[in-house]
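Deliverable D5.2: sample structural annotation.
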Amino acid sequence: MDLMWKARFDAELPSETTSKIHLVDLAGSERAEATGASGTRLKEGANINKSLVALGNVISALADASVAGGVKTKKRSPFIPYRDSVLTSLLKDSLGGNSKTIMIATISPAYLNYGETLSALRYANRVKNILNQPTVNEDGNVKIIRELRDEIAHLKALLAQGTRVSPVGPRLGASVEEKLQRNEARVLQLTQEWTNKWKETQSILREETVALRKEGSGVVLDSGLPHLIGIDDDLLSTGVILYRLQEGRTSVGRADAATKQDIVLDSAGVLKEHCVFENRDGAVILTPLPGASCFVSGAEVTGPCQLTQGAVVVLGTGTTFRFNHPKEAAALRLKRQRCCPRPRGTYLGDLTALRSGENVESKHNHDNLTAQTSEWTSEVVEGQVVEEQRRKEEKEDHSLPIMPQEERPPE
């Protein structure tokens, strides 16, 4: 899969296009008798055939849906079994999505391959029946700019036509010209905003300390500088905030501070001039200003405090960040690989052990042994308590006075 992302001006209009291309080499159906496969190869061929059957079912369903789409009917749209195999799940966007699908069938003129050739031709013929209607999704601002430009052209034509045919009334002419000027100003503003957005994005990505890469279905933003990642409790917040701590001094405060702040926060409990981050020689030190509330990993900070990888920083009453130090994290990962080769996550307790030089695996084994010992001890104590209670009850039973039996009259 290749991702193409292009932003340009087309006929003085901003144009932003994002497209993907999927190049898929489908394996042919496996004939066990012809190949003589056995064991692992036989299982692999069976799995390939299952995937091809699932793909054929999807293609047939899409072809039927395309034919039914041309006829007005009240029936519900047919179900497309994309989830029947991994192959069809991966090809979902390429087959029935907002896309164009092209299939090249490879056939053989040999008589021995007559069945395979006929099957491939039927496959390709069914793909031809899939009729997608791809549309170009454009940015909302770009659409508004295009509509405003069309309206501007229409207003200019009205003014020119009114001037040629008959003099336009002063009131009508003034209203048209006023609307024309408003639209032109709006177009200029939106175009400038779109241009500034792309310039700012490109300037950020050009910096050596920031890299944007794709990893599977996600996008990873790497930063070579120490940085803060916002942890927002607001369920309506959809953005990810990253503040890079440049070499030197980074001030944090509110927008209405006497001096301009490098990081502006409008959260509760944040003072006009709240704190300062000092990045010197690879060490980042947080210094709260007088009256500011700052916490690092749950402990209140009243003086200069050096931050370490993974520290949780809370400014004010609820502004929470996670501190990342790429160089320190790389060194800790290398140390973890040496002492704990098995892949696993690293947690806050592990970081303390790694920094002190303690073996993380040994620490976990010790913790597990301690937990098991504690569990066994609690079971033994509980058993002793139960046994003591039982003995006490037996002792009480033996200490009770024995009542004399009633004498019965002789028969």
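Annotation notes: Residues 402-408 have pLDDT under 50 and may be disordered. The CA atoms of residues 215 and 221 lie 10 Å apart.
The annotation will be released with the project's public dataset once the embargo ends.
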